[in-house]
Every structure is written in structure tokens, then in C-alpha cells.
């Protein structure tokens, strides 16, 4: 347990770790084969990400992240980073001359998630090998394949930014276990800078890493270079990625890295460097100076962008906040998720925390301190995951190593047990830890099914991706379609849409929701304001059910019942009866 592998190089199990990574990728490929063939993305954001890449290939500027086909003619500026577009762009560009654009895109939709997982798996495997040996390293990578919240971010077609953020976190975790403070702190800082540049969701964990490195400094002033290097690399990395992806734009936004964020980290980085020059400073004096630096950094942020002290979603229109934001489950707290999500997550994260405590208790010296730091980071990530469900992927990648160790330990016990009762108990524990969803499925089999609600059980028989393609025969017009259908329309046609589920188009989203829930006459005024040419929808999709629940005699309810107003003319584009298309007539 106390053997220091951090300087060993000869016995790192590269081939076995690659095989473990390939095994998980093969499982992902098999379980998502139908989705891959039909082109059904896990999330609308993934479809819109591909639209962004196509626009880049079509000549849109690198620094121009406006989606001109959302709320035309001005369009909507997206808050996404070009960093995530880059690997997709490179793969499609490289393969298109050989296999054509369609096949190049299909390859990218598989390769990018798998390569992202490969980066995360390499960091997890390397760190596990350093701490616990080759066997645990292999099982830590395999454990990633049994963590649903983590696996979801690396499945084929999952090309949105969450996988890259998870990989950035894994690299930072590996980096702070290196022997050389300046190198380790710098790698961690650059990695977290990339993750934050992709999305601000990683900010709380960047702060958690800073707390860990501050604690090292508190215990031993010779370890101050960890935090100094981390903060300097973080601030420089953020500036570099901002210039590389945004250019010299000084446009301020609260939902992505902007000049105010850069100023905050520059002040924090310079302050940390200045404190680091005071070699003999410890205890209360050290804490006081860091408190002062924190106040100065926060003050500079508030001075430049005071409105960003609140949540980026605080200014949402009440209808958008109530009928869209609160219903995006992945962005809501864990306790608002279905049991099939939170029960497995709580079991596995609880097991990860327990395994971490055992590792800490069994260790001595630097490894004991490391496991206490690892435990703190896991707890921070779990808390973040409790508040924002999709952030459970961050907790999962941190928990992979202790879960891998726990799996190896249980397997060793299973082999050594001669009594069938003990062997069965250990096997049951392993199944529960690696496949906790089975517990939920077993409970469902003996419990009465709940009445169908707004989510889950009521799935649409009208495939939005398959049917959106039918609209391409109508030319290039502006389509009034549900928020969840918008990305499919943009992906498979030349049309524009009034809005998609992206908060920077909040005004257009508000108009769309109001139109669907208002009377036909009021809807007509709102559609005219957006110069709408066609209305298209799947009448049985959950979003339409929501609108009909809000107003049972509103515009959406009329369309769902097939009673369209006289200013709409039905258009036959083929497809199922649930796919309704209308031309707006004067």
C-alpha cells in the first residue's frame, strides 16, 4: 500500500489497459448500435453540436458562434466553446475526402466519444497503477463501464461537452499526484482551464482542487508551489483558450468565460504568486492573506460584471423558467430524478466513499494524505452531483479508482472463501455495486406500475429525427416547432426554427411557449412576429402534452386534436399521422 510507484515506468500495463478501454467501447457500441444506425442523438444538444461543426465546414468564422437559423434573421449566439468542435472538425475534415461527408460524420460521432473516454481512462488507469498496482488499474478502467452517469457521457453520438470536462477532471486528478509540484500543479491548472473554458460547470471542482493544494501548503510551506503553479497555469490557460476561441471579443456573458472571469483568475493567480514569495508565512497570516486575495478577486469580478454574481438563469422569463428550465432533468437536483437514476448513483457513490475511507485507514505516509485529498474531492463532486444531476459524471470518474480496488478486494475474498453462504454474499455485493440498476428493475417487477405522467412512460411514437428529414422537401423556410424538435430540424434540413432549448434565445423561447399555450388568435400574432412559414410538430411528444396540460384549449391542444385554425393549411410530407405539418396562410 505504501510502495511509491510514482517514479516507476517499466511495468505499466499499457496493453491490458487498452484492452479494458476497448472492452468498454465495444459494449457501448453494441448497446447503441440501433441509435447509431438511425441517427438518434442522446440529447438535442448533441445534434446541435454537429450543426455547429457543419456551419464551420460551410465557411462560418471560427470566432462566430452564432446559430443564424435559430430565431432568424439575427440568430442566437451560442455559449458553447469551439474547443469541443475542434476534434469533430479535424476528423470530419480528414475523412471526408476518403469516405464522403456523411460517413466522415458517422465516424466522428463514434470516434470522438471513445477518444474522450480514452483520455479519461488513461488518467484513471495511470493514477490507479501508481497507487494500487496493475490489477486495480485495469479494474478501475473497467469500473468506468459500470457507472451509468459516466458511461452516458462517452456513448456514441454523445458529442456535447460533458465528456471532455470529465476527461479534464481526470487529468487534473492524476496531475496532483505527481512528485514534482510545479509540473503537477501546472498540468492540473491547464487541464482545469480547458474544462472551465468548455463550460463553467467545472468551476466548483476547480475551487475544490485549489482547497486541496492550499491544505498541502498549510501543512508544509515547501508544498506551496503546488497551489502557485496551479493558479498561474489556470489563469494563463484561461486567457490562452479565450483568445484562441473568442479572439479579442470583450462581449460579456454570465454563462461562459468572459473578461470578468479572466480578471478574477488573474487577480487570484497573481495574489497566490505574491503570497508564495513569503516563505515563512504560515497559519493565521497565510489564511488572512488568501482571504484578502479572494475578496480582491471577487471584487474585481463584481466591478466588471455585477449582474453575473447571480445565476445565469436568474433572469429567465418566468414561463421559460417554469416550463423549460425546471423540466430539464439533467440540470436539476438528484432528488428530482427518477429512481432508476438516483438509486444506482447513491449506491455506487456511497460504495466509492466507503472504499476511499478504507484505503485511507489502511495507508500510511503520503498515501494516507493522498486518499484524504481524494476523498475530499469525491465528496465535493458528489455534493455537486446532488445539486446538478449531470455532474455525477465528475463524481463517477473520481470514484472509479476506489471502486476498482473494492472490486479486486471482493474478488480476492470470493476466491478465498470456502463456504457457499459467504461466497454468495460477496457475489451479491459485487452485483449490487457494479449493476445497481438491477435492484431498481427488480423492485419495478413486484410493484404496481405508476400512472403515466409527463415523463418516461409516455414516449412519442413519432420519431423527431426521422420525420424532421421530411421537411427538407419544403425548401428553406422558418419553422415553428417544439423546442425539443428544433435541433433535429436544423440538423436534417435547411430550415430555420423560432427557438430551441437554449437559454440565450430566451425571448424566442418565451414566445414559442406562449404561442403553444395561448389561443389560436394570440398564437397567430406571435408567429407573424417571427415570420413563420410552417408549423411542424409530433402531436404525441411530451412537450406538446405539457402545453396541452397547461391550456387544454390552447394552440397546442388544437393541433394535437387535429383541429387546426383556418389560417393553417395541412401539408402532406409523408410520415405517421402524429407528424403534423401546416403552411401558414394569410
UniProtKB/TrEMBL annotation:
<feature type="transmembrane region" description="Helical">
    <location>
        <begin position="136"/>
        <end position="154"/>
    </location>
</feature>
<keyword id="KW-0812">Transmembrane</keyword>
<feature type="transmembrane region" description="Helical">
    <location>
        <begin position="257"/>
        <end position="276"/>
    </location>
</feature>
<feature type="transmembrane region" description="Helical">
    <location>
        <begin position="190"/>
        <end position="215"/>
    </location>
</feature>
<keyword id="KW-0472">Membrane</keyword>
<protein>
    <recommendedName>
        <fullName>AcrB/AcrD/AcrF family protein</fullName>
    </recommendedName>
</protein>
<feature type="transmembrane region" description="Helical">
    <location>
        <begin position="375"/>
        <end position="401"/>
    </location>
</feature>
<feature type="transmembrane region" description="Helical">
    <location>
        <begin position="227"/>
        <end position="245"/>
    </location>
</feature>
<feature type="transmembrane region" description="Helical">
    <location>
        <begin position="342"/>
        <end position="363"/>
    </location>
</feature>
<feature type="transmembrane region" description="Helical">
    <location>
        <begin position="283"/>
        <end position="304"/>
    </location>
</feature>
<feature type="transmembrane region" description="Helical">
    <location>
        <begin position="107"/>
        <end position="129"/>
    </location>
</feature>
<keyword id="KW-1133">Transmembrane helix</keyword>
<feature type="transmembrane region" description="Helical">
    <location>
        <begin position="421"/>
        <end position="442"/>
    </location>
</feature>
